[in-house]
Design brief:
With 492 residues, the chain is α/β, with parallel strands linked by helices. It folds into three domains: 6-86 and 169-432, Glycosidases (TIM Barrel, Alpha-Beta Barrel), CATH 3.20.20; 94-162, Oligo-1,6-glucosidase, Domain 2 (Oligo-1,6-glucosidase, domain 2, Alpha-Beta Complex), CATH 3.90.400; 435-490, Glycosyl hydrolase fold (Single Sheet), CATH 2.20.220. It contains 20 helices and 21 strands. The chain is globular, with a radius of gyration of 22 Å. The chain starts with 5 loop residues before the first strand and ends with a helix. Substrate binds at residues 50, 191-193, 233, 290-291, 340-343, 397. Keywords: Glycosyltransferase, Transferase. Its EC number is 2.4.1.7. One of its GO terms (biological process) is carbohydrate metabolic process.
Amino acid sequence: MKNQVQLITYVDRITNAGLKELKALLDDELQGLFGGVHLLPFYFPIDGSDAGFDPIDHVQVDSRLGNWDDVKRIGDDYDIMADLIVNHMSAESPEFKDVLKHGKQSAYWDLFLTKDKVFPEGLSEQDQATIYRPRPGSCFSTYTLADGSTEEFWTTFTRNQIDIDVHSAAGKDYLNRVLARFDHSKVNLIRLDAAGYAIKKPGTSCFMIEESFEFVDKLAKQANELGMTTLAEIHSHHMTQVEIAKRVDMVYDFALPPLILHTLFSQDCQALTHWLEMAPRNCITVLDTHDGIGIIDAGPMDGLRGLLTENQIDNLVETIHGNSKGESLQATGAAASNVDLYQINCTYYDALGQNDLDYLMARAIQFFAPGIPQVYYAGLLAIPNDMELLNNTHVGRDINRPYLNREKVQQAMQKPVVKALTKLIKLRNSSPAFDGRFTMASAERTLTLSWTAADSQASLTLDFANKDGQIILLDRQGKETQVSLSKLLAQA
């Protein structure tokens, strides 16, 4: 995998077209910016109840976007990350419809997880209270079979997302078929979506239990044998990320986005530096994704101390709501459907009050922190909260899932903050120093992040009190280049 910035995008929402048009966009308007691309679910259908994360057919490219050959063509020039949706599949899938029709006589009965498979003696109140819930409501949905009987199926996220029994032969075969399709189509990075919820065990939280680690470890090794790198997608306490990083190729640094916001809001980098001292080095860094801004990753959980205190988390959330003029409040929690309990739905740009310099400072920290940086398409273009889409769909996360086209991309690329950001991306991609050793130094309101390789150096010094940053690059010939973030923005 290239040590370069990667793009996160829906194929259709950035192009208003398909995979061929995305390849053209990467090669033209976005040329030189990205070494790889995370293609958010492009399986059939892309417009289900959870924007593609509820596939009817995980091994079929939605024909509106193209086909697997189009995926391969992108893979000829870029690293491709794709989602292996480990935990569930659509209730509209032929397999689940067959289960509803034939019940336990269905060839696919063992593919899906029912309540009684985990709790054959019944679910006690204590068991129910122990199960960790990422969203409001029950983790079970009752379906009526063709013979009139009813069955309670595990639905961790929504009623339309039926959990897979990954221990069953049918479940293993399902995941194997998806892996084989990825391998054949030049997908070399696999995001294990919702992997922490895949294993259920009585008397536990059914989230990131020891058996979950074992499952992820085994799945990662299986992918490695096919030449693919795995990335575990888990929102949880920050020490969970540290632990699971030992079991997989890569993890997300989900603690980084809220910590950067806290640092910029408070002008205090103590929590951020504390995290960067211990954070996994085999990580993908993000500020924004197709989901909301994770809060749980930096806060206390189940009696464990967080990187931020409860009061600091509360202040962070309220500041985001204030900076976004209350728009994030309309998209978060009980205010919108299909929400997560641990995320604030808002663009990162609006979380910072659309302050261009703060936004550039945040991206600079991300690019200089350990890990491979990914930039979400809306964040790349500094697109504000899409309130029109939110009001139309009433899905909280749609506030940060805008529908664009090539013309809108071209227009956004002319914004000063986007011009400055693209220069910052090219700087991150071009310096070999980022293949070297990471060091860090901090004072009361300043932070320096440095990279040193055999023949090059790169450092970022941030002054949070005076709101500016200075980048110093030293190349192989000993030539020094200095870049001020405020000047980079002013000259854009």
